[in-house]
Amino acid sequence: MDIVQSILENETEEKDSRKSIDVHKDVEVETDLGSLLALDYNTLNIKTLKSEQEKYLTSLTRDNVQILINKIWELPIDRVEETIVAKLPKPQYVLPRARQIPKPKPLTKWQQYAKDKGITSKKKKKSKLKWDDELQKWIPTFGYKRNKAEEQKEWLVEVNNDNKVMEDAFATAKAAKEERRSKNELQRLRNIAKSKNIKVPRVGLPTKEYFPDSQQLSQAITVARTSTASVGKFQNRLPKEKDAKGIAKEVPGMKRKAEAPPRNLQDEKKRNKDLADSILTSNKKVFREDFSTPKLKPAKTSTKVKKGKRGVKQTGVKKPKAGKGKRDMRLKMGGRKRR
Length: 339
Fold this sequence. Notes:
Blueprint lengths: L1 H16 L12 E3 L4 E3 L6 H6 L1 H21 L3 E3 L4 E3 L22 H9 L11 E4 L4 E4 L3 H10 L15 H27 L18 H12 L39 H17 L22 E5 L2 E5 L24
Antiparallel strand pairs: 1-2, 3-4, 5-6, 7-8
């Protein structure tokens, strides 16, 4: 009997797996064929969901997918290379993105210049390998193997100048390469700062292409002149050179021009009001929160009154006593000799 019951159960499962394409729902399922989306607003069977969660969700998904496929077969259909294709309409439901839409990469300084001037690159596709007649083998056009091949070729450097005999040609070439690499890295960081509208901090006195405004140039000259220990006191000035406006606030130790006295009573009141407002609105602590004046107690003096033959005598603090004869004769200095 157990075998017959198991066979009947298998038959019922096979019948359940082959369900009809007609799916009935109490509330009609909304579909968006453009984005292949089905929205089911029917209530869930909580008891079945808790007892047979995986089986219940599988059957529910199957029914909704069947409804979506039935809607697709109602669309106009074409045959392309023995394949049936349905033309989907435009999507109506806007699906939210998980991430922000990527922005176009900003052009570098050279790319912008080439675009304005209409310069196009004429580079041809080069092969990754190149034949070297000196080494008699194929070497890559770039990469670490290329550098190793160059080191094998340049194992000897000819020096024509007598002044450069004592110099290390390999160290000089390595330093020049590091300098070029640092220059390229600085230019790359400047391109990034320019694309993100970040002001590059003033570093020394760069070339004039970084100073489109004369005010910036005067500020750079003033900063360079006041960068000494004496804040530019003993530095020579150019003819008709003046300090840049507002630079004294940024350079510590630089003399500031004295503020003109108030012209009238209203001007003086306005200045005092602005000063009080700037102190109250600033984040800096002007007064200590735990400030308290120390309370000093007067020293107690013990006074005693003695009565004697000559009348009342008031005594104050006791006089210090001597060392009671405990003197070190080795530490005694020279004086009158006693006989």
